[in-house]
Amino acid sequence: MGKNGRMARVQPLSGFPEWTPQERLVEAHVIATLRDVFSLHGFGEIETRVVEPVERLAGDSDASKEIYAIGRLNADEQAGREAKLGLHFDLTVPFARYVEENQGRLQFPFRRFQIQKVWRGERPQEGRFREFYQADIDVVGRDRLPEHLEAEVAIVMARALAALPLPPARMHLNNRGLVEGFYRGVGIVDVAGALRSVDKLDKIGPEGVTEELHGKGVSAEAIHAILELAAIQTPDSSFVDLVEALWDHSPIVEGADEARAQFEAGARSLAVLVDAVNAAVPECAIADLRIARGLDYYTGAVYETLLEGHEDLGSICSGGRYDSLIAGGGFPGVGMSIGVSRLVSRMLGAGLATASRAVPQAVLVAVTDEEHRAASSAIADRLRARGIPTEVSPNAAKFGKQIQYADRRGIPFVWFPDAGDGTSLDGEVKDIRSGEQTPADADAWAPPTEDLNPRIVRG
Amino acid sequence: MGKNGRMARVQPLSGFPEWTPQERLVEAHVIATLRDVFSLHGFGEIETRVVEPVERLAGDSDASKEIYAIGRLNADEQAGREAKLGLHFDLTVPFARYVEENQGRLQFPFRRFQIQKVWRGERPQEGRFREFYQADIDVVGRDRLPEHLEAEVAIVMARALAALPLPPARMHLNNRGLVEGFYRGVGIVDVAGALRSVDKLDKIGPEGVTEELHGKGVSAEAIHAILELAAIQTPDSSFVDLVEALWDHSPIVEGADEARAQFEAGARSLAVLVDAVNAAVPECAIADLRIARGLDYYTGAVYETLLEGHEDLGSICSGGRYDSLIAGGGFPGVGMSIGVSRLVSRMLGAGLATASRAVPQAVLVAVTDEEHRAASSAIADRLRARGIPTEVSPNAAKFGKQIQYADRRGIPFVWFPDAGDGTSLDGEVKDIRSGEQTPADADAWAPPTEDLNPRIVRG
């Protein structure tokens, strides 16, 4: 605008990714694909406002420590009376508030998906995004939620990931009841604290976890047992025998009947889950007793997802079952969340997907001279009427220059209008890649299907 | 999550609209329609981060007085060294920065669209949104920009609006050069100041404008002349004779040759614009010499758009031509912006559009008993494989209850699997609106096209 006078040269903001138009086509494709798969499985979309009262955002998770607060720059006394607001750092907290606020208007179980940006003020040097898209699905019941929905959300997400230009994804599944029952069985009192330590296994290794748990007063035998549990991983329900044998050989405390029942119910539930996911999406699911998820509120299935060959990304799709979405209780649910921007960033960075061209238009209609621009526009409109994205050349330069204009943008076809009186809808169309030029009628010609719109090409 | 204990009952935040899933379908339809029309005309999409340095956002517009600043809640010294950031209040400022930052990688003229939320901390009691979607198109050239693009952006926007479930839109067009030339001709020195006063004509009336201009030292004769200019409105280029006659009868100052030339060039340009828009979209455009637009940076065409029968909304789609998008100059452009959320809010509030159902799924596959759930899932997957959005009943209640479940959500069809051994893909499908029930094969049956996905129904 020039309205602020000359400024210092602009600098990208670390952690706030922006794509070129060609890259944005990949991101838009990912979002559209997720929307299609979620809708096909009967999930409806909502969007929530991006701000929540700060006291609703505050909590124990790492993300809640990195809240961006917002306030009006030119605040007056009115502003001072308003609630302090922050940008949401995930889509679960706003979804919980949405359900609480609209509970009288929603039908339960409520199946929703939500694809929006979230913000976390993480240190930029960690190479993590501060602004990124998440895509969440959740099913929330009223008072009860059937266990088979734990498999359903995993299957929907597995299919969504399979529909994207990505290598195979493996879902690592666990059950919070199984783990809690076992931990209680070996005498651990602060189960949540122990889970948070085990959740760091990848980062700090068994030695680090041992040290942490020792510091929390956990006995060496118990630490040994829970590290043995965390090492169990099977591609099917055969883990059940392994965990039961482990229980039998572990230092179980007196009076652990209730813990044992919780452990067994969790093992049964996880076995059903792993088999159900693999039945629907073969070789997708793994029972992985290491999966802890740092968040306190999970009570059943917990999920993480690794991408083959891109394990360094960490989990690209995580979630779990929780007892209640809202503070008052009564809304049990299960959900999973995809970190869309990190996936898109990897797709682009690793060449997993590119758009076949940078612009939507398949055709540039050349302009013979400015007096005959209307003829070119009429041809373009006939093409558009049949769904063919078309641009009219912005100038009436020599045809060679107009071809160059198309070439630089990746527009595959250039249409040359009939000379004549400038009212004809006929002309010649040139595929500027092959050089082939053929007569064409604006009411009949169409580009080959693969050239109609930019395609997403797998790398 | 229950993680924060029981809280006060949640309250909607004034100015931050949220839709139900059924309403969101209307908003998503609007956004998808805009994206389609823009792409069909050769505009490519970008998204920009939602934050900009505050000093880039600051300026003279009303919007820039209502910036939301953001900062990390738990700021450390690192945060103190970071630039102060604010949420963007429009899509022009970030687009300008994007072009400046990526100028070496973009092809000019650069045609882009952008559909994102923006934030303005306006007083909620004014009934205006603080968070809302905008949809912008701009074409930005390098050093030059042909005038015919002023017509093209208007035509694209007129077609986009015509594709939405709205009554007819009328575009009110003016030309900044015409107005400036005239104002200078009658001796006004502070043209921008006078424009800002005339821009309030609708709000404060001719008396209010007269008072303001008088206060700015404008002569009574000049005020009379510019109010006469503002009263001219024609549905075609016939305004040219009227403004020329007005010039001839106005108190023109000495040595106004340059002003006269600017005035005449502007009039010619506006005449071409009005005729071109009406040729492409009949009866859409009106030359309206009252249109001023408060923003300083417009230099050619300026646009406002009123919706028939909903003039109280004010302009739903505005913009103009500007000399340079960026501070250093050299990037002339033209663009228009639709206030999407206000439009959607009106569509919903006035019943202009509703979704035919609240959920994406066309079919609920009933479950005979939990042992045969897999058979129902197999049927659902066959339907989904052919693009039919389907849900499997979450419970195996009596069929009457399962039909009720579908009915409450607006799912039109319920599929009853064949009893038998639970592996059959046959069954019966019931249209629960008519009660008609027919045998069906999961590999062949499809709902009528109009029931496949939720439709947007015009009110």
Question: Could you characterize what this model shows?
Answer:
Chain A has 459 residues and is of the alpha+beta class. Among the domains of chain A are: 21-168 and 308-354, BirA Bifunctional Protein, domain 2 (2-Layer Sandwich); 363-458, 3-Layer(aba) Sandwich (Rossmann fold), CATH 3.40.50.800. Helix content of chain A is 37%, strand content 21%. Chain A has helices spanning 21-40, 54-57, 77-80, 92-102, 148-162, 176-185, 191-198, 201-215, 220-230, 239-249, 257-280, 340-349, 373-385, 399-409, 449-452; strands at 44-45, 51-53, 68-72, 85-87, 110-119, 131-140, 169-175, 233-234, 285-288, 298-307, 317-322, 333-339, 353-355, 363-365, 390-392, 413-417, 426-431, 437-441, 456-458. In chain A, the strands form 4 sheets. In chain A, strands 1-5-6-12-11-10-7-9-8 form a 9-stranded mixed beta sheet. Chain A has a 5-stranded mixed beta sheet with strand order 15-14-16-17-18, with helices on both faces. In chain A, β17 (426-431) and β18 form a beta hairpin. The longest helix of chain A has 24 residues, at 257-280. Chain A is elongated, with a radius of gyration of 28 Å. The first copy, chain A, starts with 20 loop residues before the first helix and ends with a strand. In chain A, 49% of the residues are buried. Mean pLDDT of chain A is 92; it is low at 1-8. The interface between A and B is large, with 112 and 111 residues.
Task: Supply the CATH architecture of one domain in chain A.
Answer: 2-Layer Sandwich
Shape of chain A: elongated
Radius of gyration of chain A: 28 Å
Tally of helical segments of chain A: 15
Superfamily (CATH H level) name of one domain in chain A:
Bira Bifunctional Protein, Domain 2
| End-to-end separation of chain A | 39 Å
Number of strand segments of chain A: 19
Strand order of the largest sheet of chain A: 1-5-6-12-11-10-7-9-8
Tell me the β content of chain A: 15-25%
CATH topology of one domain in chain A: BirA Bifunctional Protein, domain 2
Give the uncertain stretches of chain A in residue-range form. 1-8
- The structure class of chain A reads alpha+beta
Could you give a short account of the major beta sheet of chain A? 9 strands, mixed
Oligomeric description of these chains: homodimer
Largest interface between protein chains, with number of residues from each side: A-B, 112 and 111 residues
Helix content of chain A: 25-40%
What is the highest CATH level, the class of one domain in chain A? Alpha Beta
What would the average pLDDT of chain A be, to the nearest integer? Answer: 92
